[in-house]
């Protein structure tokens, strides 16, 4: 079973050495997999770039644990950041769980005065220079400001400011006081356990977002269609819709738990639009190489267009001889049909067995798209 | 759900073997409009659940 990999980060300063070692030992005893430079990460092999090695290890970790004291650490001029800060940026960018413990007195000074001073400095600098200051300029200003505690490395303020701008919570760190890791990680487990059951809700919402996004993106395409001399360009509308109805799997569900792929259908190859006129369904437009009639009588029992209108229900029809599914959608006085070839192995017997799955696959492919098209066609034909 | 067949100008329940050129269909239980309404409703409920749960999980005690 995988263990929680916890990267322990901090400046290598005297006050934090014991704390880091205690955290490493205790987290390992608790069954986790702590990673720390001086214990199990560096400095071997000799040819490896130590900074890259640390950043890679952060990328592989599940949790990033950062201790902040009064020292800033090794500053890389080219990056304008310390190694510790770069590790934090890596963890933040990779979406890791970030746990920060900051020295209580440093934290109090930061939130009491220094944070506001940095905010004011940045704003004033932008106003006067039209650009943000470099890191070196911020550090120099902090170093020379009499109101900023001088026993703390200016880079610490710069780091804490970055943490606060990114809304990263900082726990209190009292040097000499042991952190109750079992309780801390139990609370973390409790919080994580509250979120894990949301998995299906989040996945479902992602699906809904993708479907509605696809429908939304159709709008500007439809709006940009130029009308023909004799009215709206229905063929182009049908084409815009039909080309989005891609093929897919037809799945049979066994209750809410298990589903099985029982067949497939191919992408839409054509579409037609009919409108009721008296006792007939009159042909309005088609897209693709599909058969069409000038009109169907409303009582024509052999026409899926007339049948859909009379039933007043969206319906998928199937014919074995043509190996085709016809998705038929009724809106007001209109019937839209989308023609999707059935995958191999479909026949009448199989359709009768899995008709509900066929309906689900084709009707539910993207209900937002169909809904939007119905509205648009309804508006154009009104 | 019942499956219907349209053949020889008549619609009837599809029972037994059907000719290859028969038109088979089973009306969907829900229209696309109903599907969208239900989906939007489920979306809102789901979002509320996610927001509530995240608020609880990230609350500092």
Describe the 3D structure.
The complex is a heterodimer of chains A (382) and B (61). With 382 residues, chain A is an alpha/beta fold. Chain A has helices at residues 14-29, 37-41, 50-60, 83-93, 104-129, 135-144, 154-165, 181-195, 199-223, 234-242, 304-311, 348-363, 367-381; strands at residues 5-10, 33-35, 63-68, 75-76, 81-82, 97-103, 170-173, 248-254, 258-265, 270-277, 280-288, 295-297, 315-319, 324-331, 334-341. In chain A, strands 12-11-10-15-14-13 form a 6-stranded antiparallel beta sheet. Chain A has a 5-stranded parallel beta sheet with strand order 2-1-3-6-7, sandwiched between helices. Chain A has a two-stranded antiparallel sheet with strand order 4-5. In chain A, strand 13 and strand 14 (324-331) form a beta hairpin. Chain A starts with a strand and ends with a helix. In chain A, 36% of the residues are buried. The mean pLDDT of chain A is 91. By secondary structure, chain B is α+β, with helices and mostly antiparallel strands. Chain B has 2 domains: 1-27, no CATH class; 31-61. A 3-stranded antiparallel beta sheet of chain B has the order 2-1-3, with no helix packed on it. The termini of chain B are far apart. The relative contact order of chain B is 0.13. Chain A binds chain B through residues 169, 187, 191-192, 194-195, 198, 201-202, 204-205, 208, 301-302, 304, 307, 311, 313-321, 329-330, 348-349, 351-352, 355-356, 359, 363-364, 367-368, 370-371, 374, and chain B through 1, 3, 6-7, 9-11, 14, 17-18, 20-33, 35-36, 39, 42-43, 46-47, 49-50, 53-54, 56-58, 60-61.
């Amino acid at each position: 079973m995988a263990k929680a990999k916890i990267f322990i980060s901090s400046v290598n300063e005297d006050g934090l050495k014991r704390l880091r070692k205690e955290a490493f030992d205790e987290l390992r005893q608790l069954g986790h997999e702590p990673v720390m430079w001086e214990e199990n990460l560096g400095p071997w092999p000799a040819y490896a770039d130590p900074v890259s090695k640390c950043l890679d290890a952060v990328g592989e970790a599940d949790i990033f644990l950062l201790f902040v004291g009064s020292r800033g650490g090794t500053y890389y001029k080219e990056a304008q950041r310390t190694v510790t800060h770069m590790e934090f940026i890596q963890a933040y960018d990779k979406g890791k769980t970030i746990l920060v413990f900051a020295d209580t007195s440093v934290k109090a000074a930061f939130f009491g005065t220094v944070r506001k001073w940095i905010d004011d400095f940045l704003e004033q600098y932008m106003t006067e220079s039209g650009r943000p200051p470099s890191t070196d300029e911020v550090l120099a200003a902090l170093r020379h400001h009499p109101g900023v505690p001088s026993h703390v490395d200016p880079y610490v303020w710069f780091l804490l400011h970055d943490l606060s701008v990114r809304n990263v919570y900082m726990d209190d760190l009292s040097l000499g006081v042991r952190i109750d890791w079992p309780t801390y990680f139990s609370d973390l487990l409790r919080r994580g356990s509250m979120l894990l059951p949301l998995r299906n809700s989040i996945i479902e919402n992602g699906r809904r977002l993708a479907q509605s996004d696809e429908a939304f993106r159709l709008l500007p395409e439809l709006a940009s269609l130029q009308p023909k001399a004799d009215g709206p360009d229905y063929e182009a509308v049908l084409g815009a819709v039909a080309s989005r109805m891609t093929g897919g799997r037809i799945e049979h569900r066994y209750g809410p738990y298990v589903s099985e792929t029982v067949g497939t259908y191919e992408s839409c190859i054509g579409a037609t639009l009919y409108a009721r006129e008296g006792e007939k369904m009159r042909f309005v437009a088609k897209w693709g190489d599909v058969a069409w009639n000038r009109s169907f009588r409303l009582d024509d029992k052999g026409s899926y267009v007339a049948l859909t209108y009379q039933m007043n229900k969206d319906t998928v029809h199937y014919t074995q001889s043509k190996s085709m599914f016809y998705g038929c959608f009724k809106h007001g006085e209109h019937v839209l049909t989308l023609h999707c070839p059935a995958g191999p192995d479909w026949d009448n017997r199989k359709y009768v067995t899995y008709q509900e799955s066929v309906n689900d696959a084709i009707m539910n492919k993207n209900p937002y798209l169909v809904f939007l098209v119905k509205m648009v066609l309804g508006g154009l034909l009104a | 759900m019942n499956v219907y067949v349209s053949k020889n100008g008549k619609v009837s329940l599809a029972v037994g073997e059907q000719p290859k050129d028969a038109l088979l269909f089973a009306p969907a239980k829900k229209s696309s409009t109903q599907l969208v309404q239900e989906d939007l409703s489920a979306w809102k409920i789901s979002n509320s659940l996610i927001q509530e749960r995240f608020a609880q999980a990230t609350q500092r005690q």
